[in-house]
Amino acid sequence: MTPPTGLKLTQVNLDTPDPAALARFYRRLLGWEIEVEQPDDVILRNADGGVGLSFQRERAYVRPTWPAEPGRQQMSMHLEIGVEDLSAAVDHALACGATLADYQPQDDVRVCLDPDGHPFCLWLID
Length: 126
Fold this sequence. Notes:
Strand content: 25-35%
Structural class: alpha/beta
Oligomer: single chain
């Protein structure tokens, strides 16, 4: 099925209790600039023109659990971030404020958690 013309994925939204703080984390992690900053919504633009990230205030935010556990808040999505040097990327993510998840399902991928607990994967680009 061919989609209607004009459809383009422009950004991914992450819920957070503090949009400005989470946007600053991803700004340091990715090196992107803040394009819009409002009290309940902050948008980072990809310098390469790709999909951006938006951080929207969720007053009832519940930190997700990784890996999933019955009866606990589960992640609904995660970001995949390709890297050329996995060890250096993990060190950078940790310096930015991420934590390394206890559970690591693959040798060539590292699951990290942002300050609000959203999982993101650093994976080796071939």
